[in-house]
Amino acid sequence: MDKSKIDRINELSKKSKTTGLTPAEKQEQQELRSEYIKSFRSNLKSTLDTIVIVDEKGNKSPLKQKSNIAKEKH
Which of 29, 39, 59, 71 is in Cβ range 3.0-4.6 Å of 1 for a Cys bridge? Predict the structure, then answer.
């Protein structure tokens, strides 16, 4: 996500706290926030996908996705 969109998110947030937003601005804010979250998650997943665990013997293995703990309890 580029800086201009992040700046717009911040601008809308400040405006919502002071004068309030129009329905169109609220919709824009929601869309920008969704795009930001999607971008953040994608970047985080890319970072996590590159992590390699090295054990005490020097063996390397990729980081594995943790299973759903809630499913294990039931």
Answer: 39
3-73 to CATH, choices 1.10.287.540, 1.10.8.420, 3.40.630.30, 3.40.50.1860: 1.10.287.540
The tens digit of pLDDT for each residue in 1-42 reads 899 999 999 999 999 999 999 999 999 999 999 999 999 999
3-state helix, strand, coil in the chain (%, to 5): 65, 10, 25
pTM: 0.72
Between the alpha carbon of residue 50 and those of residues 12, 28, 45, 63, 74, the distances in Å are 35, 33, 9, 8, 32
